[in-house]
Amino acid sequence: MPSLxxxxxxxxxxxxxxxxxxxxxxxxxxxAVAKRDLLWSGGVVQLKVPANARTLSAPNPxxxxxxxxxxxxxxxxxxxxIHVHTExxxxxxxxxxxxxxxxxxxxxxxxxxxxxIDLKPVxxxxxxxxxxxxxxxxxxxxxxxxxxxxxETPAPLQxxxxxxxxxxxxx
Length: 171
Description:
By secondary structure, the protein is mainly β.
């Protein structure tokens, strides 16, 4: 039996091709990181970790493994990954985390560059010192709150990590 799309095309009502039974997904193989640069550290923020955060581990250069949660914040053209580094990652899934914050840029050996955020949990009663947001960049909008730290994502992504004082607004 022909698909609806085939019937529409045969009737001259559509020029769209049929969707293949199995979509081909082109997955890029992992590429080694050439270098990492710390852009900012020192503040404490509070964020909600989504329920769909992934628990991952990576080899620790000092031995053993590093456990962490990873969840993306979407920007135009891609995402900024946020990592929560803790020995008990599942304790934070779907909950708020108060954490020391570090913003990095990493460069892969193939030249691609990405901004990412590392969070290291502190005691729950620690007061946040800053607010953090990952935002879409709107062409022509270059103004943020006075004193805001803005770390734009490398092209082709169009976004930024924006950090302000805990009592400030973002714009």
